[in-house]
Design a protein that fits this description.
This protein is mainly alpha-helical. The protein contains 12 helices and 4 strands, in the order E-E-H-H-H-H-H-H-H-H-H-H-H-E-H-E.
Amino acid sequence: VLEVWIDTPMDVNTDVFMHWLYGYTEHESAPKLPDSKSYPAEVLQDVHDQYHLFAYLEKLLQSPASLFQDVSNSLSPRSRKWILNKYYDFDAAFVKEILGKNLANRMKKDNIEDVSARCGVTLRSCRRQVENLRRMFKAVEDNRGPLAANIASTFCLDDGLAQLYARIIFISYQRFTLDKRRLSALTADDTMFAADQLMRHWTITEAAAAASSNTAHPVVASDMEMD
């Protein structure tokens, strides 16, 4: 349980927070909690209060620097970091479906519904994950330097999660087409490994940028750009 202050002290129930992320409604979340059979009305009211709190926190989560600068609640830095990483985390099935999609443009509602149906993740959760990706893509697509480091610093994410975003964004930025039949046997892990290798060995590294500094056409280090 995480403590947070807005006007009055409130507790963030981590189980309810995960239900909210999964896309459950308040009425779907409440029966999954302890004491829901003994005190159904009270538990439902608690869930309602939690969801109201999460709606407030979501505005900060979409601008992570604000989450850490906000002084109107008493969440510890560690708790804020946990909430942030959970909010930006992926479902593995979702990653498989989203790889190679164009993140520069907003996905149509029908397309998100198709992704939700194929991967078995609720529509609300899919929409959150898509919007997180688009927000991040737009924030870093013109940045230079290591992509994962740019993501980690801009969105205050753990390194592992930032690296995952970097690979997905790299695949989209390079417009790799992954829906070919001959690629259907590839798992998401296979594709992410390939992206990692391309970013490590086939993009403009710091060393390559340094070597070109005194040439007629110097380049800037970026693991978004193929060398």
